[in-house]
TrEMBL record:
Its EC number is 3.4.21.26. One of its GO terms (molecular function) is serine-type endopeptidase activity. GO terms for biological process: proteolysis. Residues 4-337 form the Peptidase S9A N-terminal domain. Keywords: Hydrolase, Protease, Serine protease. One of its GO terms (cellular component) is cytosol. This is prolyl oligopeptidase. It is an enzyme of class 3 (hydrolase). It comes from Actinorhabdospora filicis. It catalyses: Hydrolysis of Pro-|-Xaa >> Ala-|-Xaa in oligopeptides. InterPro entries: AB_hydrolase_fold, Pept_S9A_N, Peptidase_S9_cat, Peptidase_S9A, Prolyl_oligopep/macrocyclase.
Amino acid sequence: MTHPVITRSEAVVERHGVRVLDPFRILEDPAHPETAAWQEAQDALAAARFAELDTAGPLRLLASLERPAIGLPRAGGDRRFHTLRGPEDEQPVLIVTVGGEERVLLDPLELAADGTVGLDGHSPSPDGRLIAVHTSRMGDDRCALRVLDVDSGAEVDAPDPVGWVGDVAWLPDASAFVYSRDGELWRHAPGTPWADDVRVLAGQGVPGAEYRLSIAGTRLAVTLVHGSNIRSDVFVLDLATGGRTDVHIGRDVLSTAFFDADGRLLLLTTDGAPNGRVVEAGEEEWRDLIPESGDVLYDVAVLDGGVLAAHRHHVVSRLTLYPVDGPPVPVALPGPGTARLGGNGLVSFTDPVTPPHLLRLDGTRLVPGPGPAPVPVPGVEVRQEFAVSADGTRVPMFVLSPAGAEGPLPTVVEGYGGWGVSWPPEYRAHRLAWVLSGGRYAWTNLRGGGEYGAEWFLGGMRREQQNPIDDFVACARHLTDLGLTSPELLAATGGSKGGLTVGAAITQAPDLYAAAVMNMPMLDMVRYEEYGVGGQWVDGFGTAEDPADFAALVAISPLNRIRPGVRYPSALLTVLDHDTRVDPAHARKLTAALQDAGSKAVLRRKAESGHGGSSAGRARDLHADHIAFLAGELGLKGNVAGA
């Protein structure tokens, strides 16, 4: 495969007596004429490659697997608000229910007919008369905030750009709300100019801060999540006096603070409990409401009669009701899957073959809730496996196979491993599309995620990032050892932090994979701090300014492990033209390095999408590219033409 050539430079990164070559430095600058010409040639190369592939078949199959998706309702007075996306909808619409009657309150297609504007969040006022809505364009992480009159649907306040999405906390009388803008908290009274807003909290010097807010009277509970997602600060502001009470600050503890109906400050926290607990945070002492257990506590919902808690047991959800008086009571779920909790006893449940749907707690059992009934996908078997990593750690993964299939099949193994993000069993159309085409699909639960609590999370971050790479490689080897696949039939895939995991795996164990897909990937860990918002992730990745951190970053950085004469897997790297989180320079530089080393690599740019998401059609288009590429590389001969 003839590939475009970029001039190699003599650029070097030198830190702490270590010199690291950086020959493709020019590709960090998209405006440089040579970079622009190189990118144009890469676009032509990708177009020619995909002209040889069948993407129409995967598109049809993906479309056939779309199911109605209803969001957990939120209450405002006697009104209920939820999102709903039908199988043919480009974006979810916002629905309001009044007196049992539903109507569309906001359809993003009315804001942009091409589907490029999406609904990121909504927060109704306590009386339900007004609602604050976050929207973003083309998956941009930055959003706009607007206020709607619920009865008329008219805008009370035109959109105001506020940057990163955060919570909105309405005052109890609905006269105003607190929101985040550019790392600060502001109070806005609907119907007044945004320029007249009052600053409630100045910036706290935390890059990439995200605020979670809860309010009781004039007390505002603030959870400030650091950009690394390794720690959160919790404090309470008195909106009347301006006073502040710190709960915990500056420690590697993750908490979410919220008030219950009685105005008690509760914390879902890892403080003193790596697997999580719920405490009442009194001024003098904390009192356990839900003590730590052997399973990971990840979600709670306060009900009139107690607290409903969701734990993960080996990644699978378990529900328990903790009554005000009496012992805990298990609440049975429909099967091994994932539950998310909402208000009024509503639960969203999904598993790998069943799309998300709502259930309702009736006493101590779950019954069907509002919204469409789920339609499971037939013909797919699900199993959980455990691999053994390099240091002896057991690593879970879930494997989907065609029903009754035996022997090795073309297999995709997917990984992430970072930021405390868990990968539980849930419905994903792209995984099912691969299996219904005749292949196997596995997704892994690597260290750096939140599947086993804070220790599992920290075991894959900072200087421990070789662990999730080892975990991922171990999972791939386990699949081959079981005879479910072979290196000639195995592909690795991951996006964002998962792109780093995959890039590191294929450069450390290149003979284990035939192909790889890296979507919006981080790949140049030696210079990641220099790109876009990368500097805000230092607490999670480490910094080149620290000698030990730098050594760890060089060791895992895929870009810096490419060597001539080594056969690397065929690679597809996809970048999104509105990605404001991970700079496409990562993918450009690794593409050049792989091609320069004699390996097949394709760089594919996708339009009108960003790191924060895209319309349903654009997401299907991206997944169809991945499926078509991997089917071609692994020789998948099944029903890839569609259902």
